[in-house]
Amino acid sequence: MMNEKKTTADTCPAIILSAGFSERMGQPKALLKWNPSTTFIEKIINEFCSFNCNPVICVINKSIEPDCSRLRVPSRVKFIINEHPESGRFSSVRTGINEITEADFCFIHNVDNPFVNRDVISRLFALRDPDAWCSPVYAGKGGHPVLISSSVIRVIANTHDLAITLADILNSFPRINMEMADDTPLRNINTQDDYKKYLGE
After folding, report:
1. Which CATH architecture has domain 9-198?
2. What confidence score (pLDDT) does residue 31 get?
């Protein structure tokens, strides 16, 4: 039987992956403006905090640490530096997971998708399963965020081969699909053209 005390939103962490070098964008995606007063990373933090996720772990690289340290964020938000971002995305996943290994569930989200919202987070959380992972799906394609269970968390924490990808691990577990009416979970802003297209410039 699911332990209700441990599966409330305020004990469900969220990991925001933001340690990449944003080479195609030409500037850090985390610091792109969602609106005149809010960056991508702040927008995403705010959505997970509005659902009461705790803690919210932002895995960043050293180059954006000074900017992130100046952001006004709730105390539950932690900025963790991936000392070796050149090792790839999975190294950032593990860096975040190392902070929350006792969690029953955890969200993982990419900073290049600022379209996540509290409704999507809430709907995913309602589908949580201790032996599976959940993903929003549009037109047969899975997107972000994903919600992983403690079973997945343990495998990630014990996987030290950085050639492995998060997808490799997720594919070894059952997936619960959450059908979406639009493609926002699939939208990744990686280039200046993407930025202009999705933000209506």
Report:
1. Alpha-Beta Complex (3.90)
2. 94
The pLDDT score that the predictor gives to residue 11 is 82
pTM over cut 0.90 = yes
| Segments of the chain assigned E as strands | 14-18, 33-35, 38-39, 56-60, 77-81, 105-110, 133-138, 141-142, 146-149, 175-179
Q: Which of 111, 112, 81, 75 lies closest to 96, judged by CA?
A: 81
Say which residue the tokens 């332990």 belong to.
Answer: 3
Tell me 20's DSSP state. S
Q: Which residues 6+ apart lie within 8 Å of 58 measured at CB?
A: 16, 18, 30, 41, 45, 68, 77, 78, 79, 80
**Predicted pLDDT of residue 162:** 84
User: Model confidence over 148-158: pLDDT tens digits?
Assistant: 999 999 999 99
29 vs 9: CA distance, rounded Å: 27
Which residue type, as a one-letter code, is found at position 65?
Answer: E
Lookup: tokens for 136:
């929003």
- CB within 8 A of 87, min separation 6: which ones? 162
